[in-house]
């Protein structure tokens, strides 16, 4: 079997993305206010066609896009990913009217999107979602409650909001709505996070929504969430791989040039072996991310029940985010105190790299998903061999413990 590799066009595209990030996006990112939406940066992503690429490309292209931007400008990567996360449900499940109203604005970078799932008491436990959608007696609902750690909140122009329309039904009683920011009763505050990303709260005090605001079907909102997260999970891993590669490159350059003990740091076996370990883990994570994205592209993303997409997506996010944490931390150690100075690349990456191990499914939740999928596959295999078969819950059936702690970064 030949080794997996990108084709020449993909390699060229990644190089072009890194150049664009350095020349066009990084200067805009440096002018932005940490923790707030950088609208000039979002607009530039739209002008360059990168936001539109989110919706007409596959999962592998999304991974290459996020990895390439992350190597050069994490702020641009995060702005792109947050926009994609909030807009994808509209692209995939929106009505013709919703798509016509919001997709052109979002892909041009003129309208900023949010993905509002997580609540103060409901992150990993989707069945505990408590934002209440109360029937208004006229065919619509009133939303009451709070969302927390929400991408681009409270500055977004519209949000994909998940609310409970049927009590006592777990994840099966959740509905997705498209809620414009000018709805009466909608408020919120920005949050000051370790990573300088645009996150905040959203408060709902009787916010009106109607049938025309539905994304998908009533009580089927968890499907909207899982469809979005199954696509974006591998690309969270790609974001992590991009940061790991940036840290590895910095560590290689530093240890090759830094004088130490009559030679260079790279001459020390302990240092060389650490670099080798960093490189090996980064490449392994990259290949697993690409494999998960390819599985998504080659499968049926609208029905993952009989595919290995959830397992591969969880594995990719798990390995890539844990690897990035290790690689960035190792790079800081090899640089010494200079890497801890405010403004140093590694100081920046050290703050950036922590959050992806939590959002869009914490590491512990990914392990739960992986194990569940493996055991479900084992039971199906036994059933094909003639053993008694009993279907067990898999991620997305209402008893899933998939974390949706939104965007402490991308």
Automatic annotation (TrEMBL):
The keyword Flavoprotein applies. It comes from Streptomyces exfoliatus. This is Acyl-CoA dehydrogenase family protein. Its cofactor is FAD. Residues 219-374 form the Acyl-CoA dehydrogenase/oxidase C-terminal domain. Keywords: FAD, Flavoprotein, Oxidoreductase. InterPro entries: Acyl-CoA_DH_CS, Acyl-CoA_Oxase/DH_mid-dom, Acyl-CoA_Oxase/DH_mid-dom_sf, AcylCo_DH-like_C, AcylCo_DH/oxidase_C, AcylCoA_DH/ox_N, AcylCoA_DH/ox_N_sf, AcylCoA_DH/oxidase_NM_dom_sf. Belongs to the acyl-CoA dehydrogenase family. PROSITE patterns: ACYL_COA_DH_1. Residues 397-410 have a biased composition (Basic and acidic residues). Residues 114-205 form the Acyl-CoA oxidase/dehydrogenase middle domain. Residues 379-410 are annotated as: Disordered. It comes from the Bacteria. Residues 8-109 form the Acyl-CoA dehydrogenase/oxidase N-terminal domain.
